[in-house]
Amino acid sequence: MAKKVNKVKTRAASPPQPRGKAPRFASPEASIADDAVAAMLSSYDAKTRAVVKAIHKDVAAIKGVDVGVKWNSVSFRVGDTWFGTVNVRAKEGILLVLHTGAERKSDIKGQVGEMKGAAELKWLGVERAVVGVESASVWKRKWKVLRGVVSEWVMNVQP
């Protein structure tokens, strides 16, 4: 009598990730599966979660951008440089804070300040700006004009 062999399908191992770097995700929605980001999102009320997810989805779609939790907030980076943080504790609503990283100081205002869409930003210095967001629909409207500015910001903070 012949023995029946069960074949088990195995998933191919994903390529090893460099140490110290966040894994690159296939899509912005997939990156929400990151435990720290998912935990942060689940701690928000429904309205805040909708806004942060909308910001997350759009900013993470920019080539080279990774998402994680830094400074106890959903944050964005390119390479090893963190450049954006979602502040949900602001008195005036939710803020997307754009900066040039913890160490680097550059005059990014001079590089992107005259671009179409830069008027949506409130400049706090030559290397820091914020945009206020009251709801996911407001973010969607603002993102239409901010997309180019944020993409240029990413290009200017890359190491």
Give me the secondary-structure topology.
Elements: H1 28-31, H2 35-42, H3 46-60, E1 65-70, E2 73-78, E3 81-87, E4 94-99, H4 108-112, E5 122-125, E6 128-133, H5 136-157
Antiparallel strand pairs: 1-2, 2-3, 3-4, 4-6, 5-6
Can I get a quick summary?
With 159 residues, the chain is an alpha+beta fold. Helices cover 34% and strands 22% of the residues. It has one domain (29-157).
Walk me through what this model shows.
By secondary structure, the chain is α+β, with helices and mostly antiparallel strands. It has one domain (29-157). The protein is 34% helix and 22% strand. It is built from five helices and six strands; from the N terminus they run αααββββαββα. It has helices at 28-31, 35-42, 46-60, 108-112, 136-157; strands spanning 65-70, 73-78, 81-87, 94-99, 122-125, 128-133. It has a six-stranded antiparallel beta sheet. α3 (46-60) runs parallel beside α5 (136-157). The model is unreliable at 5-31 (pLDDT under 50).
Percent of sequence in beta strands: 15-25%
Task: Characterize the biggest β-sheet.
Answer: 6 strands, antiparallel
Low-confidence stretches: 5-31
Radius of gyration equals 19 Å
Shape: globular
Helix content: 25-40%
SS elements, strand count: 6
> What is the H/E string?
HHHEEEEHEEH
| Number of structural domains | 1
First and last CA, distance: 66 Å
